[in-house]
Amino acid sequence: xxxxxxxxxxxxxxxxxxxxxxxxxxxxxxxxxxxxxxxxxxxxxxxxxxxxxxxxxxxxxxxxxxxxxxxxxxxxxxxxxxxxxxxxxxxxxxxxxxxxxxxxxxxxxxxxxxxxxxxxxxxxxxxxxxxxxxxxxxxxxxxxxxxxxxxxxxxxxx
Length: 158
Hints:
The chain is mostly helical. A three-stranded antiparallel β-sheet has the order 1-3-2, with helices on one face. β2 (116-121) and β3 (127-132) form a beta hairpin. The protein has five helices and three strands, in the order αααβαββα. α3 (50-80) packs antiparallel against α5 and α4 (100-112) packs across α5.
């Protein structure tokens, strides 16, 4: 899997240089073209989980960006309107993430979204305590964190 990632990064860099677009747009374009080229030539080197993992990573990024936009507008709306919509609370979110790396990535993704902040992890690392700015339904908030962030993150990492 890592060999295909390295090859895809090499193809993306080469495409970016050849097309004289040594910037993020050129690199992403090269990555997509390299991914497609590797996918087409997949019978040459056998089945690999790389292709599915890249799709899962793309879904994670899109989901996180959507959550980022929605939470930004929710916080903005609370700030610019005279009425206060916030209902701050600290909730515990049960963790499926087990390693320090998985918990750290999840906590950082939660903290990067406006209106939420990862505070602490329980001693047995089974619960992540999160401060949320808008708590309408505790179970719905837990489900959003578990489904939109943790599940997708663990699908990419594991």
